[in-house]
Amino acid sequence: MTIAEAYLEFGSREARGNSPAYESLCTAIAADDELRGLLATLPPAKQQPNLLFGVVRLLDGPLAFPAFRDFVVERWDTVSSEIVRRVTQTNEVGRCAALMPVLASLPQPLFLIDVGTSAGLSLFSDKYAYRYGDTTIGESTVTLDCEAVGVALPTALPTVAGRAGVDLNPLDITDPSDVAWLEALIWPEQEHRRERLRAAIAIARTDPPHLVRGGLEAVPDLVAQAPAGTTPVVYHTSVLYLVSPAERAAFAETVRALPGHWISVEAPDVLDFGDLPAPPDDSALNVLALDGKPLAWVRGHGQAMFGF
């Protein structure tokens, strides 16, 4: 896929209906030879729209053409260096709404292990409230809304006895620069997500999570740390696309052999699920699966799920 195609696809499948600013930027960048040329000097994994947009926002750059173009071109050395040293570590707590029905169905209490945890905010699913249409579960300063179609809803929050996360570059919720990066990754029109992020950080700061710097190889050791009598639950959301197909397959084989359970929320081509039911629309959707069994389609930020 060319850079132009990648930006047009992101604009039409992910930004459309969610961020008019990003959709417009994607269209303009796809048609701009100079910007595409600059992006082509970056490693392929660093050419993604979310990363470019997040860095420009972090640097207080404009989000409308042609000012956006001028900013990136004139400050390319700074922009490109930030892009190279960063990864998209969106800590979207809304995704917990997709995890919740599965977490609540497992033998309690749970020992949560979040892979690709970013700042660890998705480890606090038991501290948030959930609103599935007319059904609300829990009370919290953070309420996550999710449309749930064909999904058995939980009746109570799970009991969490421990939580740990692993990331190649874990972010520190007590570090203002790390928090600024998390905020920069939130799409500009979505102020509710920004407010929700700040409220989730406030919750996590009362009991900062145990985060380990490392990759997929760190998971077995974390599972081994689960206290006796707890159910270890390894989960990840939009993470495995960042590693090679061989690494994904090896991880799936490893995690299947571990005690406890494995929850994945990944794009349909990231793990081998075989034939899947038709998705509800042509937007970018993930697949929620438990122990490798697909259960539902999920929107990228957990705002809706559609059971199989």
Structure write-up:
This protein is α/β, with parallel strands linked by helices. It folds into 2 domains: 3-85, no CATH class; 93-307, Rossmann fold. Helix content is 36%, strand content 20%. The strands form 2 sheets. A 9-stranded mixed sheet has the order 5-12-11-10-9-8-1-6-7. A hairpin with a 2-residue loop joins strand 10 and strand 11. Helix 1 (3-15) packs antiparallel against helix 2 (20-30) and helix 4 crosses helix 8 (176-184). The longest helix has 15 residues, at 191-205. The protein is globular, with a radius of gyration of 19 Å. The two termini are 30 Å apart.
Secondary-structure map:
Layout: H1 3-15, H2 20-30, H3 33-40, H4 49-58, H5 67-74, H6 76-85, H7 96-105, E1 110-115, E2 129-132, E3 135-137, E4 143-145, E5 147-149, E6 160-167, H8 176-184, H9 191-205, E7 210-213, H10 219-224, E8 231-237, H11 245-256, E9 261-266, E10 285-290, E11 293-299, E12 304-307
Parallel strand pairs: 1-6, 1-8, 2-4, 5-12, 6-7, 8-9
Antiparallel strand pairs: 2-3, 9-10, 10-11, 11-12
